[in-house]
Design a protein that fits this description.
alpha+beta; 173 residues; Cyclic Phosphodiesterase, Chain: A; five-stranded antiparallel beta sheet; binds adenosine-2'-monophosphate
Length: 173
């Protein structure tokens, strides 16, 4: 079994662009623990434990998704109380992101996985163990990212640290 999730995939250059926002997040929530730059991502659907046959079927379903590439404008910092994270998020969710998320969720549900979240809230977790105000909504200088890929990720300890490893990549057209 592997712990898996679907996520937008950012390039290393895009992950570097997120670092100034992570610094702002850490100044808003001192004591929070920064997410490693190569782990920065935006979850589409969290699956949890998946066996190899389910994984293969999920990949086959996801390979049929044909939603367009899109631009994502990230413009504010916010906090979740549970888990305690500080994140960067868009105020306007692009239609193409919603379409993609719905299609990914359909694949996962067809394979018997339930969405454990009441409502899809796209966000990029910048730091964890954040003791900050759950009502935090801090505007930041907008950052626009071109999104042209998503992936099925494995979450696991590799070389003694938590890493999110893209197992299969899917291009958006
Ligand atoms: P993330 O912050 O690293 O994306 C399981 O709950 C995982 O799903 C969390 O660790 C979180 O991972 C992500 N998540 C939490 N709440 C969510 C929500 N409302 N919508 C989408 N992803 C969420």
């Amino acid at each position: 079994m592997q712990r898996l999730f679907f996520s937008l995939k950012f390039s290393p250059a895009q992950q570097q662009q997120l670092l100034p926002y992570q610094q702002q997040a850490l100044s808003v929530c001192p004591g929070a623990k920064a997410v490693a730059s190569d782990n920065l991502h935006l979850t589409l659907f969290f699956l949890g434990q998946v066996d190899s046959e389910q994984r293969q079927r999920l990949i086959n379903y996801a390979a049929q998704i044909n939603t367009p590439a899109f631009q994502l404008q990230l413009d504010h910092l916010g906090c979740f109380a549970k888990p305690k994270i500080v994140y960067l998020a868009p105020s306007q969710i692009p239609d193409a992101l919603l379409q993609l998320q719905q299609q990914v969720a359909q694949c996962c549900k067809a394979e018997g996985f339930n969405d454990i979240h009441d409502k899809y809230r796209p966000h990029i977790t910048l730091a964890r163990h954040a003791a900050c105000d759950a009502a935090l909504q801090q505007p930041v200088a907008p950052l626009t990212l071109q999104v042209s890929e998503f992936a099925l990720y494995q979450s696991a300890q590799f070389d003694g640290r938590l890493q999110y490893l893209p197992l299969y990549n899917f291009m958006l057209i």
